[in-house]
Structure formats: structure tokens, C-alpha cells
Write a structure and sequence with these properties.
This protein has 144 residues and is α+β, with helices and mostly antiparallel strands. The protein has two helices and six strands, in the order αββαββββ.
Length: 144
């Protein structure tokens, strides 16, 4: 899935669209996507000057956006049709390694359950073979 297809499934836009490409998707089960980390992103001006580190909250958001793509694609819904996917929670969040400009952040999300519009995903992020972050993420499908 390229960036234009992603934009049909997510309401986010620059500078807050954090998924560049989907490389694998198994509807109702799993997604693998990535975000290229570049030095010209606006948050690097202040996080941290002289030692640029991609903010952990944005890694979490990127995993949630990948999960949102999986949810929207599975339900065959789009934001344009009046549906929105809210990030409503994260459990068991762990960070292991900083992410810096030049890295390609690999985002993986596996659907655990969906009940009454609340979806649960097991997510992980990595750079190459190095573990970066993991979390259990909750999203809610709601009318826009």
C-alpha cells in the first residue's frame, strides 16, 4: 500500500502522518508497515538539539496509525465515509532503543480482538533486527 492508499484510510496529514508504506497486510489479522525517519522532521528542532531522537510518543502513535490502517481496511471503511478510529489506550508499553534520523522504523500490529467497536492490537516497532518498542494498543471505531 503506497502513501496515496494510506491517506484514503487515515485522516492524518503532514506533519502527523507517521506511516510511509504498508509492506504486508492480512485483513482482520496483521499489518507490517514502515516510517522513514529523516532529520528534517519538525520535532527534531527541539528533541533534542545536538542529539536528535525520534520522540517515543510518536513511535507509539505510528504503531497506532498502522493499527488504524489494519482496522479501516478490515472494516472496509474510510474517514471520508464518516468513520474515525480513535487511539484510546496503551498497556505494557516498553522502549528499548532510541530511533534517530536515517533509521527505518518497522511497525507491526496483530489484531487480538474487536468487541463493540473497541479493537485491541499487539504492536511492536523495530529498526532492522533491533527491538525498539512494544505495546498493547486499544482503538475505538466511532462515527466522525
Amino acid at each position: 500500500m503506497n502513501i496515496e492508499e494510506i491517506k484514503k484510510l487515515l485522516p492524518h496529514r503532514y506533519p502527523f502522518l507517521l506511516v510511509d508504506r504498508v509492506v504486508e497486510i492480512d485483513l482482520d489479522r496483521y499489518i507490517k508497515a514502515y516510517k522513514n525517519i529523516t532529520t528534517n522532521e519538525p520535532h527534531f528542532m527541539g528533541h533534542f538539539p545536538g542529539k536528535e531522537v525520534f520522540p517515543g510518543v510518536l513511535i507509539l502513535e505510528a504503531m497506532a496509525q498502522a493499527s488504524g490502517i489494519l482496522g479501516f481496511a478490515t472494516m472496509e471503511k474510510t474517514p471520508e465515509e464518516g468513520s474515525i478510529y480513535y487511539f484510546v489506550g496503551a498497556d505494557n508499553l516498553r522502549f528499548k532503543r532510541p530511533v534517530v534520523p536515517g533509521d527505518q522504523l518497522i511497525l507491526e500490529s496483530t489484531k487480538i480482538s474487536d468487541k463493540r467497536g473497541i479493537w485491541k492490537f499487539e504492536c511492536k516497532a523495530s529498526v532492522g533486527d533491533e527491538f525498539v518498542c512494544s505495546a498493547t494498543i486499544l482503538c475505538a471505531d466511532r462515527p466522525k
